[in-house]
Structure formats: structure tokens, C-alpha cells
Design brief:
The structure is a homodimer. Helices cover about 45% and strands about 25% of the residues of chain A. Chain A is built from 7 helices and 8 strands. In chain A, helix 3 packs across helix 4 and helix 6 packs across helix 7. Chain A is elongated and about 55 Å long. Chains A and B meet through helix 2 and helix 4 of A and helix 2 and helix 4 of B. Chain A binds a DNA duplex (30 and 30 nucleotides) through helix 7. Chains A, B: It comes from Mucilaginibacter gossypii.
Chain lengths: ~210, ~210
DNA sequence: ATTGGTTGGTGACAAATGTTACATAGAAAG
DNA sequence: CTTTCTATGTAACATTTGTCACCAACCAAT
């Protein structure tokens, strides 16, 4: 594996060595598909750099955003999928440039009992994924679209570290599982309230956006 | 532990012995709370008999049904909560008479590497919980209330094995996170379409309910 | 039988979201 | 500069869901 992968995982040295031996560093560009519906999963991705978004689709082709994974996070759904040899129920797409370490599925199980730090990492990850899914459910079930839109923009800001969000109304509508017209309408209201400025393919969050 | 607990778990004999030694058989009645928001979790429940429903609440007190656990199932969210010493994000309530085996949290970790059948059980459980949460998200995000109501009634039928569902409109509304009036309205439409019959605290699913 | 609490039925209306249709603006390509 | 494509703005309307008000039916206790 490329030694330049300067990852922030808190593993014991012996495990890091194993990861460097058996893990495979892979790079992706914006929009690349790392995982897709119905495909068998044979590796588990550790995010080294960039962001990965995880989506769920229904039978009619509607997609909705579940959560983002960023540096040093992993998708524990992939983990349990690997062990059970199940097909993926979700899709994962690179958001911008992305680097991951792909851990082959046969190592996952081996390390679980061999390295406590690996077990802890996996368990923490399970917990985080559950939390994210619960947050997602809460958001969809209890919050109106305008709140969800604001939460979405905040998350984008957090991940990019910038007040300038690059996305079309259509993309946003997709990820929130609604229609473009509705998003345009809500964004326009936010603009009229002085919270944001709208440009083509860009949304600028103003200082009083959080207020 | 009470030896009469005739559970259907597929564990190796040595593990069953440990479960009988360290597990604690507990009985609950309808409505008893097994787990609650914000409480620390110190045991993991294996369902022996009956059904347990798992709910999520938002800040304003609205609750929504996440999924049911029935015989030989477990809540793996409890598992990861135990290990991480986190507070519960969900509430679990007995639905009718319920028997569980409570596994103390210190054994969970020990058994993971000691008994492959335990590890498999836990991993399968993680997978099932993820699936249920994803199903829940799909249902809320993509399906209208009438579809969700029908799915809810079907699930009730599956769990009880009966066409007669005992629940008030108010209870159903709660679990689907809507209001009583809305549920009454939709149920009445189903009745007018010859799918169900309505009684006080009871709903009878007719033969063409699934059609 | 009377009372009081719970449950269910229903009309009327409000609010949120979805849909359709069309106009305009900007970017990109020729 | 035109053409073409994509992104956005907006009106008008439909549908879905939520809310309020009130009544009637049912049940249990006195």
C-alpha cells in the first residue's frame, strides 16, 4: 500500500502494519460509485481522505441521502454485509476526490479477535452508523422540508469547511427525496430572508444563516 | 436461569450453558418498558417469547415505531451501546406478554471471540437491524401514509398470526407518527373498500386485504 | 339509569408538499 | 453570434396531511 496514506486511525502498530500489507489504497473522483445496490460486497472501505455519501433507493428509483462518511470513518453496514455475504442495500458515491483503504473481507473477521483496537473501531462504527440512521429517520419523520434543507446545508458546510456550497437545486432535491421546484421555492424563501445568496450551481451561506 | 426457557437460538452447547448460567430470565407484561431514552444500557435482551417494539422519539415528544423484535431476535443497538457505554437513543416496550434473557454486558465482549456462533448471531443481528432501519427510512421517505398503514397492519398480522388486530386508532397514529383523525380517516376508506372491518379497539383484516 | 372517560366518525379548513407548465437566464458549443 | 442545453424562477393548481371542533357510540363504575 502507498505509504503516503497518512491516516488518522488509532490502531496499534501491529495492526497498522497489517493494514498496510493487506489493505489496498484506492482513489476515486467525484461521482465515482464505490458500492451499488444489489452488488456483493467483498471489501470494507476506510476513508482516508475526502467524503463519501451513502444513499438508499426505493423500487421506483427515488434516492435519499442517508449520511456522509469522512476521514477515518467507515461503513459498518459494509462490514456486516461482508461477513454475511449479503448484497448491498445502499449505494456509496465519492463526493469530490476520495481516497480509501479497501480491507479484504477475510481479514475483517480475523482482526476482530486479534486486535482490540480493531474491534473497538468496528463497534464504535456500528454505533455511529446506527446514530446516523436514527438521525435520518428523525429528520424525515418529524421535520418539515425547510428544516431538513437547512440541516442539509449545514452538513455540507461542515464537510467542506466553506460557506460556498456547490450543488444544483436538482441535486439537493434528489438527496432530500423531493422535487426540484420545491427546493427552488424553499431556497428562494431563505434568500428573501437574507440567510443565503443564490447563484447558478452555488449557494452562499451568509453570516446569519445559523441564526 | 429458568431451564424452561425453551429458546430457539442456534448456539453451541458450551455457549448455551453459559447463557443459562449468566443470563437472567425476565418476564414483562404489555406496556412494560424494557429500555428508555437516555438510560445507560447494561444488558442485552434476547427475546425468548413474545414481541418487543422499538421506538424513537424526537425532542418534541413525538414517537415513531422503528421495528419489532420477536422470538430469538435481539437488539444489536443495545449491543453496541453496551460496549460503548452510551445512552440509549431508543425506547423498547413489551407488546403483550414478553420473556427475555438479559445478558450482562461484560459477557457480550467475552463471548464474541470465544464462541463463533455468538459472533455470527451478533453480526447477523447487526445486519437485520440495519435492514429494518433502512426499511423504516424507505417507508417514511417514499410511501404515503395509506401504504404505510397497510404495511403496519400486515406486520401486526404477521407477528400475531391473526387477522384480528387489537389496537386503537390512537395507538396506531402514535406509532406511525401522525394524528388519530388521519388514521381514522384512512381506516374508514379501507373499510369502505371492503378490505377491513372496524370495531372498537379491533380491526379485522378481510381476505382480500392483501390484494 | 346516570355519569364520566375513552374511542371513533366526520365536516371544514389550514398547511405542506407535489405537479405541471412555461418563462428566463446563463453556460457551453458550434 | 447563434444555437443548444442546463439551471433557475414562478404561477397555478392538485393532493396529502394536519388541525380543530363537535358529536355519537361504547364501556365501566357508581
Amino acid at each position: 500500500m502507498d505509504e503516503s496514506a497518512n491516516f488518522a486511525f488509532q490502531f496499534e502498530p501491529a495492526l497498522i502494519e497489517e493494514i498496510e500489507t493487506f489493505g489496498e489504497l484506492r482513489s476515486f473522483k467525484d461521482g465515482d460509485i464505490i458500492m451499488d445496490y444489489g452488488k456483493y460486497i467483498r471489501m470494507m472501505p476506510l476513508v482516508v481522505k475526502g467524503t463519501l455519501k451513502v444513499l438508499k433507493k426505493d423500487d421506483n428509483g427515488n434516492e435519499i441521502l442517508l449520511y456522509y462518511l469522512s476521514s477515518s470513518e467507515t461503513c459498518s453496514m459494509a462490514y456486516s454485509c461482508c461477513l454475511e455475504e449479503k448484497k448491498s442495500e445502499v449505494k456509496a458515491i465519492a463526493e469530490g476526490d476520495l481516497q480509501i483503504i479497501a480491507i479484504p473481507h477475510n481479514k475483517l473477521d480475523e482482526w476482530l479477535c486479534k486486535y482490540p483496537s480493531w474491534k473497538n473501531y468496528i463497534m464504535r462504527s456500528f454505533n455511529e452508523r446506527f446514530s446516523e440512521l436514527l438521525k435520518s429517520i428523525e429528520s424525515i419523520a418529524f421535520h418539515k422540508l425547510d428544516d431538513r434543507l437547512i440541516a442539509y446545508l449545514k452538513e455540507k458546510k461542515r464537510l467542506s469547511g466553506s460557506n460556498l456550497i456547490k450543488a444544483s437545486h436538482y441535486q439537493i432535491a434528489d438527496e432530500l427525496a423531493t422535487s426540484r421546484v420545491v427546493i427552488s421555492r424553499l431556497l428562494k424563501i431563505l434568500e428573501n430572508n437574507g440567510k443565503i445568496l443564490l447563484y447558478r450551481n452555488e449557494i452562499k451561506l451568509l453570516n446569519n444563516f445559523d441564526a
